[in-house]
Amino acid sequence: MNKPVHSLMRIQLRSIFLSLGEDSSSRENRMNLILEDFYERMSRDTMIGFFFANLDLKHIAHQQSKFLLNAAGLIDQFEGKGPASAHLALAPILEGHFDRRLVILRETLQAQHVPAAMIELWISFESTFRNIVVSK
Ligand code: HEM
């Protein structure tokens, strides 16, 4: 991702996430609930559920939440692993797995009544990680 696009994305993510709540703790709570739903849906999925077998879904959801809030500039600290190192111990993630994850993300955000403009932005943000998450 080049720098100007990165800065624009940060500003867009920021304004959208600010709409999730009045203060940082209510935003983080709302984000956690959305992402807990997302990871539960992924773990039940026939195509990508196996990646999550025997893992602590809530923990992963909360790490993802912190990762996103940090990318949006709304929290200073993210001490977890980034997308380039979080998946090293897993089976190879293929293009189809990545596509499937985006379909489930869209379904989750719609079920959670996230506004359509935010859904598109969220998906375009996640799409920028395709090349580092998908195994070559
Ligand atoms: C099909 C695509 C993906 C699959 C199957 C997948 C699967 C997983 C799994 C199983 C974990 C838990 C790893 C563990 O606890 O050992 C994880 C963690 C994580 N993933 Fe993904 N992931 C995918 C795409 C992405 C993308 C696109 C991002 C970023 C936008 C991302 C960011 C993260 C983060 C931040 C963590 C938590 C790291 C931590 O615990 O510190 N993942 N992922």
Query: Which shape, going by the Cα principal axes?
Result: globular
* Number of DSSP strand runs: 0
The bound ligands are: protoporphyrin IX containing FE
Low-confidence stretches: none
**Relative strand content:** under 5%
Fold and architecture overview:
This protein has a single domain (3-133), classed as Orthogonal Bundle (Globin-like), CATH 1.10.490.10. It has six helices and no strands. Helices cover 62% and strands 0% of the residues. It has helices at 3-18, 24-44, 57-71, 95-111, 116-127, 130-133. It starts with a helix and ends with a helix. The radius of gyration is 14 Å and the shape is globular. The model has no long low-confidence stretch (mean pLDDT 92). With 136 residues, it is an all-alpha fold. It binds protoporphyrin IX containing FE. Protoporphyrin IX containing FE (HEM) is lined by residues 48, 51-52, 55, 60, 63-64, 67, 80-81, 83, 86-87, 89-90, 93, 97-98, 101, 126, 129, 133.
For this entry, give a set of tags.
136 residues; 62% helix; binds protoporphyrin IX containing FE
How is the topology of this model organized?
Layout: H1 3-18, H2 24-44, H3 57-71, H4 95-111, H5 116-127, H6 130-133
Helix pairs in contact: 1-5, 2-3, 2-4, 4-5
Bound molecules: protoporphyrin IX containing FE.
Quick summary:
This protein is mostly helical.
